[in-house]
User: What shape does this take?
Amino acid sequence: MNSWQLDVQAEVGQFKLSVSLNCRARVLGLFGPSGSGKSTLVERFASVQPFIGDILIGGRSVRELRVGWVPQEGALFPHLTVAENVDYSRMLGSVRDRAVEVLGIEGLLERGVAGLSGGESQRVSLARALASEPDILILDEPLSGVDLPRRANVFRFLLDVLNEFELPMVYVSHDPAEMLAVVDHVLCLEAGRVVEHGSPDKVLTIPAPSHWLSS
Amino acid sequence: MFLPPVAVGLMLLLAMAPDGPMGGLFSGFLFSRNAAIIAASVVSFPLLLRHVQEGFAAVPLRLSQVSRSLGQSAWSTFWRIELPLARTGVAVGVLLSFARGVSEYGATSVIAGVIPGETETLATGLMRRLNSGDDSGAIMLAVLSLVVGFGAVLISELAMKNRGGRG
Assistant: This one.
């Protein structure tokens, strides 16, 4: 369990994100409908967009941490092979081979990324993030680009990663079932603000507003 | 951006003249091969800029962000991700601006003149041959100009169609 201290203020066009939270968790879930600010907050976790305030994980600012970020749809570099993607990080560490093994992508390494399925792309993206020996792992809707029949398979790999790598993680989803299976503490966002947070079995069993579930 | 080439040539001539604002650096270049290169570069630059801009604009911001999150510097991200993915746009810009440059007439004739074997472009060479009664030479250069122009456009169109996700 890690302590999480979030004090984030950001504006993207007309959208305002304002999040303040203290909690303890290993896997922090960000839950909410499309447009609630999940991805906006994730970009601040990944320190790729400016914001006012700070995010402290275990007392350390994310601005000083190595972040392993798995964006939606994987965001693989299309002109590189799978191996070149996995080995892209400047901080490539010894964990690389273990990540490749746990995620079962040994057979994909020499391939280009163009022919990968959604699930394979996500596994490669996850291996790339893990290979950088991150201090924190961010999974932004990791199953969103995966065909429905293959989701269970990819989810199994996610659970393997969760068990194998003792990392604090941010897990983003709008699927309550994923949240209940993965996260310790869930933060519910709506219109850029925290509307609820707590353990997922308490927060997510309260009937969510119907528009959340349809988005 | 549309710039009348003769007007550009006149502006360059005034700027590069011995008493012009860039005369100290460039007055020695007037009516030389360097002047022809400068004229062709200036006139074709907007074409190059437009295609290079389009090439870089097509690179998803997310890929650059992921590269930075993996510890790469902005410079490394440019060389390893952005430039390779924008390469089709850059190549098309270079090709089309080259084709535009070798066919340049207005600005080139103003600051470089028409010196055979020295400052001639396809267009100024064609005009010189036409004026001197060398019809067959003029026709040959006209055909060559058309081949260069159509070839550049055809290759560019094919490259843009085939680039897909690879820039």
Q: What stands out?
A: The mean pLDDT of chain B is 90.
